[in-house]
Structure formats: structure tokens, C-alpha cells
Sequence to fold (441 residues):
Amino acid sequence: MGRFNYKEEYKNWKWKIPNKYNIGYDCVDKHTETEKKNKIALYWENEEGFKEKYTYNDMKRFTNKFGNALMNLGFKKGDRYLIRLPNIPQFQISFLGGVKIGAVPIPSSIRLKDHDIEYRINDSGSKAVITTSKYVKEVNEIKENCPTLENIIVVGEAYENQHSYDDMIKNTSDSLDIEPTTKDDVAFFSYTLVSSGNFNAAVHLHRWVPGNDPSVLFWQQAKDDDIIAHTGDLNWVFPLGNGFLFPWRHGFSTFVYDGRFHPERWFELIERYNISNLASVPAAYKMLVEVRDAEKKYDLTNLQHCISADQLINPKVVKEWKQKFNLDIYEGIGMTEVMVYVSNFKDMKIKPGSFGKPHPGKICTIVNNEGEPLKKEEHGLLAVKQSDPGLFKEYWNNPEKTKKKFKNGWFITGDIFYQDKDGYYWLSEKNNRKQLKKLVN
Fold:
């Protein structure tokens, strides 16, 4: 890959998203029709040291089986189901197997309490939950309170009132007719905190994956010979995108770890799997950089590119990372509704403390509370063009909140920023609760 020219790429970017589009086919099946069919899509390891790997051919077969298994349970296009799984291969399989038939997966954290699970099932009208024997207890405790919940699918030991994932997969065909979805069909829900104490589901469409091409190609700088890893849980949109769906769309290889984050263990994994492209969050980078003599203990020769999102990373961490490993950390800002859309890029001047510039194809600005664009260096609300293909459609069951977030053709993120004279975006020192309440409400 040559040097990245931000000005040229931004000027020349054109979206190429077909109307007939299905995430499952795009991220798996199309590769099985090429020389990538036997390429490793997923390297996996867990805390106990168990290892597995799956080719794109493997993933086509298993996702087809899961799609058929859902249809055998009566699932049809638009039906929702909750995924409550750790970072195990069944997460990718159940997610893509569902979207292949037009069903709507809802990734959720294994750390959720029973009342959180109950809320998500009832709010979304989910027909099923897929979880593990370790995490099914909380589902059993609230199932009687969830009138739409018809099926509990368990990875591991299942009881009489549950479906065994292994049995479902074993007894279904690996041939599947993929639902002819369009780019504007609902693909998945992702719950996010939209106001004090209230969670709403951000409704994402199938176009979300190609709508984030600039993220994986330019910010992440992913390429065909990379091994890409994200240190986070797949139920969050950052790992879901940059650690799974975005790379798979392009036929890249990914690594996923199931276990608690431990910096020394992650250095071992980076070395053992020759991970070349790392995505993480500021808290994890801080822990990694604090490992004494890591640059001497571990061979990180293959690590070439690092990105970070979630919040502004401490400049001291960025500096120490560069000193230890001769690598920059490219920061980005995003959210559940629109993922990362502003970031720093390789080969572009970095201004410490700034989140960088909008991704090619992403039209951003700073607006007032009426959605009117402001001049450079004026403080206001960071906004993204409503026509952005990577943007969510709406908040499920909350049209009033949805309406408040869209003004004058812009999606209002709710963060107070300003844009400097060079087009770089900076988090405003006015970004406090009092100012946010005044601007957003």
C-alpha cells in the first residue's frame, strides 16, 4: 500500500454500495467463490489455551447451518434474537447465520444483569437468546417475564427446555438460500445509553458494513496479508466492526481472544500469532505500555499498525508507545450510532490532542442546537450528514428521541467540538453536562 494522501482520497471517494446486499454473503460466501476460500478468516484462542481456526469455507458451512437452524425454529426475515456470548466462534457464526436469512441479531454483553437482559428481550421483541451453559442462568431467571421469548439456544450443556447449539448445527443442512436483502433492510440492533439511565437500540442496516469501508481501509490501513486483532468484546460496535465484519468483507484474517484482558498475555498473543494490525482502547494501551521491558521480552516485529477509539488517549501513552515499539497510535472518535468517522491517519500530520479529520466519504461539521453549521473555530455540536451510509436508521421504539437527534439534515452526536483552521477536530473544553444539556435539549 502506497502513502496515504488524505486530500486526494477525500476528494475522490465515491460510495459503491449495491442495492441488493446481504452482510452474510458479502463477509463470507463471496470469498468462497475465489482463491480465498481456504484462507483463514478466524484464529481463536481462549484463556485456557484452547485454539481453533476457521477458513472462509468453514464459516460459510457453519453460518449456513445456523441460518437453517433458525428457520427450523420458525424464524423469518425481521425476527430478532439476542446474542449473549463471549468471544467464541459461535458469536460470528450466529451473527452471520442470522443476517443471511434476514433475521436481526442483537449482540449483548455477558456482564448484563437479569433485568438488563429482560429489558432488551421485551423492548426488541426477541424470539430467541443464544448463550452458553455458563451464562444461561440469568436468562432462565427472567424467561417467564418475556412473552416473545420462544427459544433458548445453549452452547454447551443444554436442558430439556433449551436447544443444544451443537445438535442444531449437526442436524441441519450446510446449503442455504440467502434472503435477498437490500442495503436498506435492518441488519442488527446495538443497545446504547441515549440519556440518563435509558438504553435504546440503535437500528443498523445492511449497508453499515460497506458504509464503513474508509474505516478499515484508511484508518485501520488493513491489507490482505494482515492478521487483525481487536482486544475488546465483540458485542461492542468497535470490535464488531474493526475486529470482525469490516475485515471479513475484504477477505482479511482476524484473531479473537476469549478471556480477561491481561497485558502480558496480549503481548504473547501478538508475538505468537504474528498480529500485524491491532485495535484497542486507551485503557488497554495504558496497561500495555506499562509492562516493563516489553519491547525486549516480546518479538513484535510483525506489528505494523495500531488504532484506538473510545476516548482521547493520554499523550504520554502515545509517546511511550512510540518510544518502545516505534509505532504510532492513530486515534478515532465514534459512537454506537455511527462508529468511527473522524480519526488520525498514517502519513497525515498528527496534532496531539486532536481526533483528526473526517474519513473519506464522511461529511461532518460543527452545528448549533438548530442544526445550522458554524464557522471554523466556533464551538458547537459535532454532526454527521444524515445521508451517511454507515449511520444508523433510528432508535427502536423511540421516534421522539430519533427526531431529536436529526436536525436540518444532520445527525447530532451530542459531543461539543470545534474545528481548527486546518480542518482538525478537537474536543471542546466546554464538553460538560451543563453545556451538553443546553445544546442537546
